Amino acid sequence: MRRDIFQAIADPTRRAIIALIALQAMTPNAIAENFNSTRQAVSKHLRILTECELVKQQHQGREIFYSLEIEKMKEIDKWLEQFREIWETRFNQLDDLLTTIKNKKNE
Known about the structure:
The protein is mainly alpha-helical. It is about 65% helix and about 10% strand. The protein is built from 5 helices and 2 strands, in the order ααααββα. Strands 1-2 form a two-stranded antiparallel sheet. The longest helix has about 35 residues, at about 70-105. The mean pLDDT is about 95.
């Protein structure tokens, strides 16, 4: 089942996994050591992240290493960009208003 990337990042554990493997590729056991949950639960999160193509697997011998798929993360950034522009415009408007108020007080 292919899932939406936003479903993948909606879960706090999956966001924590993304933060972990952004630094270096890790095995499921190494990832599970960072959580108070079973390796099986971590594997389910990894399966969802893999289905969404946010992480990729690389086999090395008997081990599987998971690493972050940076290009897929850009889809999230692209979606957020539209809101970033709105916030920046509003902050600029607020700056202008505060400057106007400050100038009126100094007159």
